[in-house]
Amino acid sequence: MSATTRETRPDEPVPDRPEEPEPVLPELRPMWWEQGMRARVNAGLFGVFTGMPRLIVEALKISWSADRVRTGIVAASTLTSGAMATFGLLATQRVLVALFAAGPTPDRVRAALPALALLAFATAVRGALGIATGYAMNGLTPRVNQRAERRLFETTTAVRLDAFDQDSFADSMERASRGSDSVIDLVQGVMNLLAGVVSLCAVTVAVVVIHPLLLVALVVATAPNGYAALRAGHVKFGTYLESSARRRRMWVLHRLMAERVSASELRSYGLRDFVLGLYDRVMGAQTAVEMVLARRMTTTTSLGAVISGLATAGVYVLLGVLLLEGRIPLAAAATCVVAVQAAQRALVQVTFQTDRVFTDGQHFNEYVAFLSRADAHLPRRSEQTPPQPGPLRELIVRGISHHYPERDTPAVDDVTLTIRAGQTVALVGENGSGKSTLAALIAGLRDPSAGVLLWNDRPVTDWDITALQGRISVVLQEHHKWPFTAATNLAMGDIDTPPERQRIEDAARLAAAHDMILELPHGYDTLLDRTFAEGQDLSGGQWQRITAGRGFLRDADLLIMDEPSSALDPRAEDTLFQAIRGRQGHRTTILITHRLANVVHADRIFVMHHGRLVEEGTHGELIAAGGRYAELFALQSAGYQIGRCPGA
């Protein structure tokens, strides 16, 4: 990462190199978890190459599992094509020997015809193999990409929610997405590398037969260029690793400046210059890093090219000396020129493909490493088939705590409470008191740092987690606006058993969403996303009705509703809470809300403050206690009283 950066005006040219000393943007400051990556980058080429065989095997396994036939065709065609190149070189040598032999020209041409036929055959076979390889790769590429990407998404959709609280996980996931794209490139690069090695081995034998010194000269001519290319790729990847945070920040800024969702506030608050300024700061830092990278890569590759060019000239000088001194015949010299050119092409191919395998392998390593690290965030699985949970009788929260990363104080601190079947309970408290986190722990979305959650006197970790979550329905405060039809948005509440339209409409009525949906252009079949043709956008309150309807659809043993009415109008709010009260006595509901008038009928009210449970009881008991709940209720009640004014 760039160590420092300074603020620049939108019209100010970006400097080639950051100045010292400068303030560091928070999103660009090096993080503790980057040290391991930097250590690997600084390990040198040899340290990275030691892991290449494992990555190559892993990539070939993915390709083989995606399509065995096409993988086999690519491998066979590539290797055979390399062998045909060698065969063509040998045929060329025989042609030259025949043409440079003594005797009449017609006789020499006739003597060369069989070798010319073999050369034509080798060329035709290589062409056919190239077509076969291209055909196989065209079909293999989408299958491999799908397999690698599916494997990535299988992991990202399975990890626990707390994984997304960690910056390191987000950066690692960003690099892994690039790594999934590199699988097919790595497979193709390995195939081409093997073909180049086959050609190089055969040409090497031919050159050694002519004269051993030519091989030494050839290595000297090509090795500097190859090493320079590899070194440049290593430096480039190191910069790529250190730019993860900047790339994510740029992605966020691109969305802020070009999407409809932020367009209104951007204009109403006059944020154009502010956001452009952020763009200039982040992109300025990235541009400065890339300028340094460009200079380093240009210097490295240029030096390699100059040294290799001088050495190549030396090869031809050596060949001329050997020819003049009579150490090799003219036919052998001509063959040697062809062999040297073929060897250089093979070495260039090997160098290029090695660099490609090296680069793609490093990206692919991020993909493999992410999958490995993500295992630590996957839900724990029992070796034995866990039992199926029965209907909820009692839910016990015993000494539960939860810490978020990089926070000193716990969001939930040693909370103990009991909820019985059929009860409607409320979690209340000021912002940041830990209500939503506690609800997420109860819903199984997060794992507690300490304590235990019991479902029917048994820890929830002992039950089949999938079956248990099927008995819980959650309406989140920060709900997602799914880009599907209104019907699908509701049906997602019980996606395992796709509901009939009548059941969907009944759930919508409970959330005061039915009439609102019928007013949409296509009713329940209206697409709720303006980025598509005929798509519609909804207001915050309308989306909240859709979300509440999705929660009602499942008719779960336990319904958790986090601020379900914060954006609703009074009539819709009344309908929603009538539906919630209708569950009382036969279904369990946990209600989180700041509107305390809506919880007066709750069987039990739990008051949270700074992560701790400070009060509990019925509405009447808490009012009589005169504690925090009574104070909050009095403050809200005062807002509904008729105000007094002078002369009234």
UniProtKB/TrEMBL annotation:
Quote the subcellular location field of this record: Cell membrane
Q: Which SUPFAM superfamilies match?
A: ABC transporter transmembrane region (SSF90123), P-loop containing nucleoside triphosphate hydrolases (SSF52540)
Instruction: Just give the chief location class.
Output: membrane
Compositionally biased residues, Basic and acidic residues? 1-20
Respond yes or no to whether keyword Metal-binding is given for this record: no
Q: What PANTHER family has UniProt attached to this entry? A: ATP-BINDING CASSETTE SUB-FAMILY B MEMBER 10, MITOCHONDRIAL, ATP-DEPENDENT PERMEASE MDL1, MITOCHONDRIAL
Q: Segment Disordered: which positions?
A: 1-24
Record's GO cellular component, any one? Answer: plasma membrane
Among InterPro entries, the record links this protein to: AAA+_ATPase, ABC1_TM_dom, ABC1_TM_sf, ABC_transporter-like_ATP-bd, P-loop_NTPase, Type_1_exporter
User: Organism, per UniProt?
Assistant: Actinoplanes italicus
Keywords, A to Z? ATP-binding, Membrane, Nucleotide-binding, Transmembrane, Transmembrane helix
Tell me the ranges covered by the ABC transporter domain, including all copies: 397-635
Membrane association type: Multi-pass membrane protein
Q: Name one GO molecular function term.
A: ABC-type oligopeptide transporter activity
- TM ranges are 39-57, 69-91, 111-137, 193-221, 303-324
What is a single Pfam family found in this protein's UniProt entry? ABC_tran
In Swiss-Prot or TrEMBL terms, this protein is called ATP-binding cassette subfamily B protein
Task: Describe the location of the ABC transmembrane type-1 domain by residue ranges.
Answer: 73-353
